[in-house]
C-alpha cells in the first residue's frame, strides 16, 4: 500500500517500509524557512510511524539535489532571524540522527552549500557518477557552513580535509567525494535512484530492530569516551539479546534456514 502526501515544497511517499521525501522547492532546490518547516514536519511524522524503516531523500528537480539556502532570502533577513533559521535547520537535521530509521540521501544532481549539509545530516549518501559537483562554498560569501557543515563534515572526513574544503570552497566530483568518504557509493547516473531504493529495500527485509540499535550505537557512541561507548554498546546489545529477532536469528542459523524477521 502506498500513501502520498504532497506539500508545496516536498512530497512524502510511504510504501513497503520505505519513506521517500521528494524535494521540489525551486529550479535549483534552494530553500527558505518554509521548506525546512515542511521537512521538519515530515521527519516528525516518519519518526512515529513504526512501519517505516528507511527514508530516502531525493530531488525531483533535474540536475540539482539542492544548492542550499536561497541567497536573496538570506540577504534580506536580519542577522537575528538568520541565526534562528540556521538553528532551526540544525535542530531538524539532528532529529534525523536521533530517529530509529536509516536515512539515505540520493544525490542525482549538484549538492552544494546547505544541500550538502542536508545530505550530511543523513546516515548514508549515494551519488550518481554524473550528478555534478558537491561541496561547501559558503566561504565565497564571507560566511561559514552554519547548518552543520563545519561540524558534521569534519566528523565524517577528518579535520584536515574538512578544513580544506571549508576554507577554499572547493567543489568535488562524485568520484573525488567517494575517495574521501564524503559519499558512500557512486552509481551509474541513470541507475542511482533504482540502486538506492534497492539498498533501502534490503534493509527493510533485514533485522530492522538490530539495524536501528546499530545506528544509535555508532551515532551516540562516537561522541563518548571509548570506555563509556563500549558500555553503551553493551546495554544496546543486552536489549537485542532479549528481542524476538535475536531469538529468531539464532534459531534460523542453527536450523540452516532464512530468518523471518519481525522488527521487535
Structure description:
The protein is an alpha/beta fold and 264 residues long. It is 48% helix and 19% strand. It is built from eleven helices and 13 strands. The protein has helices at residues 33-47, 71-76, 79-98, 114-121, 149-157, 159-168, 174-179, 192-204, 208-221, 226-241, 244-254, and strands spanning 2-6, 10-15, 18-23, 30-31, 54-59, 64-66, 68-69, 102-107, 110-112, 124-128, 134-135, 171-172, 185-187. A hairpin with a 3-residue loop joins strand 1 (2-6) and strand 2. Helix 1 (33-47) packs parallel to helix 3, helix 4 packs across helix 5 (149-157) and helix 5 packs across helix 6. The longest helix has 20 residues, at 79-98. The radius of gyration is 19 Å and the shape is globular. The chain starts with a strand and ends in a 10-residue tail after the last helix. 35% of the residues are buried.
